[in-house]
Amino acid sequence: MRTGIQKLGKTLMGPLSIIVASGLLLGIVSVLQNPALVGETISNATIIQNFVGGVRAIVGTMFGLLPILFAISVATGMAKEDKEIAGFAAVIAFIIFHVTIGYLLKLNNITADTTSVDYLVQQGTSQIRAFEISNAYETMLGVFTYRMGVFGGILVGLWTAFIHNSYHTKQLPTAFSFFSGNRFVPIVIIVTIPFLSIISYFVWPFFNMGINGLGGLISKSGAIGTFMYGFAERLLIPTGLHHVLNQLIRFTPIGGTAVVDGQTVSGALSIFNAVLASPNPDLDTLRQATRFLTQGTHPFMVFGLPAACYAMYKTSYLEQRPKVKGMLLAAGLTSFVTGITEPIEFAFIFISPLLYIFHAFMAGLSFFLMTIMHVGVGNAGGGLIDLTIFGILQGTYTKWYLDVIVGLIYAVIYYHVFKFVILKFNVKTPGRTTDSDLVSSEQEVAAGSVGDDFGATILKALGGKENVVEIDNCISRLRLVLKDTSIVNESILKTTGSMGMVKIDKQNIQVVYGSKVEQAARSLKKEVNN
User: Fold this and answer.
1) Active-site residue (options: 150, 289, 474, 521)
2) CA-based Rg of the chain, rounded to a whole angstrom?
3) pLDDT tens profile 169-216
4) CATH classification for the domain delimited by 441-529, as one of 3.30.1360.60, 3.40.50.261, 3.90.550.10, 1.10.287.3510
5) Model's pTM, two decimal places?
6) Cα–Cα distance between 171 and 277 in angstroms, integer?
7) Whether residue 474 lies in the annotated active site
8) Where are the domains of the chain?
C-alpha cells in the first residue's frame, strides 16, 4: 500500500508543475501593477491593464481545470502501459462522473437555482447557512455537481487506471475483436463510472464534512498547525509521501477555504493565486494561505541547507575535498535557486538521525516563525526565484525581509550544528570516507554528460535489463520497480552522480539524482529499450 501511495504522490506532481508555472506568470504581471516599482504611468497604462487581464483570465481558467488535470495525471501516472489511452479514458470518465452526479441532484430538485444564496435566503435560510449550502456545489465544465475539487479528479483517475490496467489487453471473441485491447477500456469506463458516481453521490457529503472539519481544526490551530505541517513534511521526505501531504494542503479544504471575489476557493496555493489575481486583494486572506507556502521554506532552503553543504565541505578530509566540492556546490546552488533539497538531504538523513530530526524541527520552526511574523510570500517552489518574484518584487507588504533575516540566522545555525555533529559523532557525510568508489569530479562530469554510458552504467548497477520492471521519476528521484532490489550495486550508482537511494521493499527502489533526474530517466529508458 505504501508503494501505491508513493506512486500516487508522484502523479500529483503533474498538475502542480502547470500551476506553479501559471503562478510565476501571475506573479510577474502583478509586479507590473505595482506603482511603487514601475510607476503610476506604466501600472495604469491601458496596454498593461489589458495584458494583465488576459493573463488573469488564462490563469483563472487553469485553476478551474485543476480537477480534470488531476484526473488525467493520476490515470496516466498509475497506468502501467499505453498511458495515452488511460489519459483519453480519464477525460471520458471525468465528464460522465459529474454528469451522473448532476442528474441525480436534479432528480432531487437540487440545481444551481435552488442552491443559490438569494433563493435560500428567500426561503428563510440564514445568510451564513445559505453560503454553506451554496458552497457545497459548483458548475464544472458546464455541469452542476458537487464541489469535490481535486478529490473528484483523483478518484476518477484512480478508477480509470484500475480499469485500464485490468482491461487494456483484454481480447474479445472474434466477432467483437475490433473492440478488444485499448478500445475496450473506454467502453468499460462508460459502463462502470456511473456506479462510482452513484456511490459518490451518497458518500461525498459525509466525506466533505470530515475534510472541512479537519481544515477548520488546522485553521484554528494557528502557528502550531503550521509547525506540525513543516515538521511532518520534512520527516516524510525519505518515503516520498510528502508529495501527498503537500497537495492536500495546497489544493483541498485541508489547506483552508476562502471566498475571493465572490468565488469559493479551497487549498492554500489556490487561495494565494486567487488573491494575487484579484483586483482588490485581501492581505489577511493572502497571509492565511501563505503560511503553508514557500515563506516557511525559504529560511532552510535558500539559506540553511546551502550552509549545511558548506559545513559538510569544511569537515571533509583534505584529500577528498576536490572530489566532493563540485557535488556539494551543485547541490547547494540547486536548493538556493530552485528549492530542490533532496540531493542535500539524502547526504545525511540516513546516516545521522540527529541531523535528520534537527532539520525537520528547523523546517517546522521556520513555518511557525513566518506565521507569527505575518509574512506573506507564496507559491510552491521554495527557492530564490519564488522569494524574488512573490516577495521582493511584490513590495514590503509581504514582509519578505523577515524571511531573509531569519534565513541568515538559519545559515549560521545550520553551519555550526552540522559541523559540530559531523565532527562529534564522526558522521560519514560526503568527503569523510575512504571508500574507493567515491566519485572524482572528472567521473561525475562524465556521468552527467549525455551519452549511452550514463544509462548503461545505471542499468549495470540495477542488475541489468532483466531486473528492470518499470522506470519512472519525480522531480529529483528515479522511481524504479525491479524484480530484486537486493542485487543493486550502490557503489556503481555513486559513479553516476547518485546522491543516495531508498530501498522501499524487495521490488521498489528510489535513486536520488536531483536536477539531472530527467536525464537519468531518459538515458536509462533508452538503454533498456536498446
Assistant:
1) 474
2) 25
3) 888 787 777 777 788 889 999 999 999 999 999 999 998 888 878 777
4) 3.30.1360.60
5) 0.77
6) 51
7) yes
8) 2-223, 224-434, 441-529
